[in-house]
Amino acid sequence: MTGLIAFREIVLKVHSRCDLACDHCYVYEHADQSWRAQPKVISPEVISRTASRLAEHARDHALPSVTVILHGGEPLLAGPDRLRLVCEELTRALAGTAALDLRIHTNGLQLGRRCLDLFAEYGVRVGISLDGDRAANDRHRRFADGRSSHPLVLAAVALLRSEPYRHLYQGLLCTVDVANDPVAVLDALVELEPPRVDFLLPHATWQTPPPRPGGAPDAYARWLLRVFDRWEQLGRPVPVRLFESLLSTLRGGPSLTESLGLAPTDLVVVETDGTLEQVDSLKSAFEGAAATGFNVFDHSFDLVAAHPGVRARQLGLEGVSGTCRRCPVVRSCGGGLYTHRYREDGPAGAGFDNPSVYCSDLRELVDGVEGRTAARETAAELADPAELARSQEELTRALLARLHGELAADPQWAGAWELLTGVEGADPDALDTVLGHPFTRTWVLEALDAVREGRPDAAGCARRLAALAAAAVLRGGLEPGAEVVYRDGEVYLPTLGLLRLGEPGTEGRAALHATGDGYAVVRAGRTEHRFGPAAGDARWLPVRTWRPGPQQPPVALEDLDPYRNCFARPPRLRLGAGEADAWRRRLDAAWALLHRTVPEFARAAAAGLSTVTPLAGGPRAQGWGEAGRHGPGALGVPYAAGVRETALALLTGRRRARLRALTEVADLYALDGAWQHPSPWRTRPVPVSRLLADVHERVAVEAYRRATTTQEPGGADRIHRALDRLAEAPELTVTGKRLVEELRWELKAVDA
């Protein structure tokens, strides 16, 4: 059945009764009382059939692994023999099909060595419910006669933490009660050294809302934020899934828990009689809320996956209410747990199309965690150009390593790679220079595209790699030189120039060596000719340079590299000497204009600029520069543009290049395209990536236009409107929000 989610997690109810009488239990104390009709213990027939259905489902969906959580009631009441049968049947059925991750969730009262020996045999990890210190735990987790369960649970945890069982310890689950001391609760849990702690909000709906002492709408947020502050103060001694999920989504990553985020659920419940149900927290909503009408004897898991109630929880953003879709924190909170949205009399009628009953708490919790951590969670690349350059260098190396993984078996590639690694050991700075050449990234990306499309040109890739290595050898003056393969009579040495080694149409090999005054070509043991900085060889076309200012490093005027065709318009052919001089003069004048009119933006544009490529034709209507598919530092500028247009091209092109470099190494947004935003400059709504790119450019353009008395009427107002829209965009991560703040400050400086 196509289009259906595969269930990767099965909750198997092995016992339907409990030895505690917790007054906050959703199974026994809430709306759905179907437990009364369930068999107390799962039967061998249900176990066997469940195992078969699960193996069938894993095969049909090619699942590498499945998780089975033994649950209840209290699962340990099923006894070691029945639990052994569960482990045996599941292990047998899934052998050779999918890895089995077995877990059990228990209150721990029946946890003894016999059970733990069984769990050690089958690798069953154990999670224990504990609400904190004794005062907190005994508020709800008591025996029916009112006795405390706390000492027995601590004894169970102590046994679980001991050898040889420590590796089975999965963690502790704590249900929040705002009447408890949050610091004491966390300290008590941390003292038990759990591998993980889960905090759960008590199950509630709009019909049966959670207790709120004093009516505070944010009582649970304030309680959890006090836990967060204590967790931070202690140095985050144990993972807390709730907090780590929030931090992940704020950075643009996935949710780590069902109760938060927009990820679809992939869980199904098997009751002790073999009935198949949705997630059992739905029992808090109304009688039969979790029911599907299916069972393991007559129905496959795929039929459950097609159930409307299950499908409703696979819709991500489309599955939350309209109010939630408009909320800036919806990526993190995900509208809250599905159960907590239920309302009998909501605006859309009875159902789950509502915000969570914990909506105010979730908003304050997300904002509170973000406010406390944004400064250190923001990607360092945003504030530090040197860090951005390092990350970009690492990205190029990572892409090159991936290409090596695809082509390592080719002898020509292997030889060139060996030379490259030798250069890295001898002169890493020389290698960094050629790998930092922006069009090295273009070549690697095009080669990886070819690999993905099944057309890898291993020989062509080896030629370029050998040329990279040779350029590094020559730059570093390394011995014993490097061999290159030329084609059509020439070879391009990145960052250095183009060397003609034969007639057009010829191919061959040549050895290149560094000399005291330049470089030399050696063939058959004899030096054929010299080329380079101090030689006047007509067969050598060096890369020309331009210096933006006396304190700036030289910038390559790159009109030779065959991979410079990565811009939206074609590059110019090799400029004549007079053309190159004229272009330098225009660049000088344009750069002086920028420094005179928008000095702060000019300095930012100069940072990291290493290569300017002349493009064919004159300026387009806006005269803006182009950032193509290349590494950092490159910019395409229309050759025939005038001084003002060239200045604008330098400014906007560098802004585009900087934003692109940021998006390649840092998450500025997530779920791009899930929302469409009105843009002051476009007739149709746009995704957040486009709106952010427009604003990022327009701030600099507005500054330039004001300084050159060509400002656009209403330009600043449009930018302010776009910034306001971005500030409320759910897609933005903490780094993206920090960038929006930076743009707002830039615009304030322009306004001032």
From TrEMBL:
The keyword Transcription regulation does not apply. InterPro entries: Aldolase_TIM, rSAM, rSAM_sf, rSAM_SPASM_FxsB, Sulphatase_maturase_rSAM. It comes from the Bacteria. Gene3D superfamilies: Aldolase class I. Keywords: Iron, Iron-sulfur, Metal-binding, S-adenosyl-L-methionine. Pfam families: Radical_SAM. Residues 4-241 form the Radical SAM core domain. This is Radical SAM/SPASM protein FxsB, inactivated metallohydrolase extension form. The gene is fxsB.
